[in-house]
Specification:
Shape: globular
Number of strands: 11
Number of helices: 18
Helix content: 25-40%
Order of helices and strands: HHHHHHHHHHHHHHHEEHEEHEEHEEEEE
Radius of gyration: 24 Å
Largest sheet: 5 strands, mixed, barrel
Strand order of the largest sheet: 4-5-7-11-8
Length: about 375
């Protein structure tokens, strides 16, 4: 029996035991569609629409009619006022959006956040969904000089291109990827565990929108295709000296040969603003506690590679477990709160949520900084 089941579903890419159980529970209704399933997206689509699937002879036919049977899409389209012409022009991408259950995700956030999102934030989310439906989310996210404007720091063309490129690394069976797509961003508060940024009911879910900013990426760690870790990667700037200016009290005197003008210049360079790649604290679930350090390691490895390409100082949340304590030092530094199109953002390492009035200012804390960057 087990062999028959395994063979019948083995052609479905990355199929899980839970998927097979779900299909078996409704097998009498969808058995003819099983041979046509290619991956877990197909499985999810069939399980979400089991009753409607009985009306179609093939999976392709069902997909072509998704816009008419997906109740979340029907409501979302009405709420966001996507007219017939828009739907017709972007139908192919809309179908892909529906196959991935994008309409339900977007509608859940839009509906459940009525008391959390301002009118401006709701309009911003509409622009994000619209861009995704047009297959132009990347163009929206990396629009013109938004990166330099958000971090208030000159960004070269080469740095901008390096930042846009999503990297990945793998070590000891753990892979880490850099992401900025619609689904990776929307789901960052529910995978691998629920956090205050959950699009469903997170306490600070209005801050989820800020992760569509140009200056932010999401790192995911996977083991055997299962997401077990998540961390936010932020491009910003920082400086070692205090935010408040210090009153000048110098008087004329004989020079101290241990502190010549050249030394003062070195200190001024150290205190100048510098481009910073900041790796937020990791959220890890679904693996043994004694293996969590491996997740930290793969995130740090990816961040180090990215920082080197950008020519940025790498700063880590101090919760990271390091393989070599000598490579990093706990150091006090002021980090810039980047400007956000969302109006509000959540920054774990800087005391939580930041309002519009906080943007463009500095907050200080103790972090882990690479010795070579100090």
């Amino acid at each position: 029996m087990y062999t028959r089941i395994r063979e019948e579903f083995s052609h479905i890419k990355d199929v899980k035991a839970t998927d097979v159980i779900g299909l078996l529970l409704v097998y009498d209704k969808i058995s003819r569609l099983v041979p046509q399933m290619k991956d877990r997206l197909d499985v999810s689509l069939v399980l979400r629409n089991t009753d409607d699937m009985q009306n179609f002879e093939s999976l392709d036919e069902a997909k072509s009619q998704l816009e008419n049977i997906d109740t979340a899409w029907i409501r979302l389209r009405t709420l966001m006022e996507f007219d017939d012409d828009f739907v017709k022009r972007n139908r192919e991408q809309i179908i892909r959006f529906l196959i991935r259950d994008g309409a339900k995700t977007a509608l859940t956030y839009y509906d459940n956040s009525r008391d959390h999102l301002t009118d401006s934030q709701r309009e911003s989310f509409k622009m994000i969904v619209k861009a995704e439906l047009m297959n132009k989310l990347s163009a929206l996210k990396h629009y013109r000089d938004d990166l330099a404007l958000e971090v208030d720091y000159p960004i070269s063309k080469a740095q901008k291109l390096f930042w846009q490129e999503n990297e990945s690394v793998e070590t000891q069976g753990i892979s880490a990827t850099e992401n900025d797509d619609f689904y990776s961003t929307m789901l960052l508060g529910v995978q691998p565990q629920r956090t205050c940024l959950s699009y469903i009911d997170g306490q600070h879910r209005e801050c989820l929108l800020s992760n569509f900013d140009t200056s932010k990426k999401i790192l995911y760690a996977e083991v055997g295709g299962k997401i077990v870790g998540r961390a936010l990667l932020r491009l910003t700037k920082g400086r070692f000296h205090d935010e408040e200016s210090v009153k000048r009290t110098e008087t004329l005197s004989f020079v101290d040969v241990e502190n010549l003008p050249g030394d003062r210049k070195a200190k001024e360079e150290r205190d100048a603003e510098r481009l910073v790649l900041f790796l937020e604290r990791p959220y890890i679930a679904g693996i043994p506690r004694d293996e969590e350090k491996l997740i930290d390691g793969v995130f740090i490895k990816l961040a180090e590679s990215k920082a080197d390409k950008l020519g940025a100082m790498l700063v880590l949340n101090k919760s990271y477990m390091l393989d070599s304590e000598t490579d990093y030092a706990k150091t006090h530094i002021n980090l810039f709160i980047s400007r956000s199109k969302a109006g509000k953002q959540y920054i774990d390492s800087l005391n939580g949520s930041a309002e519009i009035t906080d943007e463009g200012s500095y907050r200080s804390n103790t972090f882990l900084i690479r010795q070579k960057d100090i």
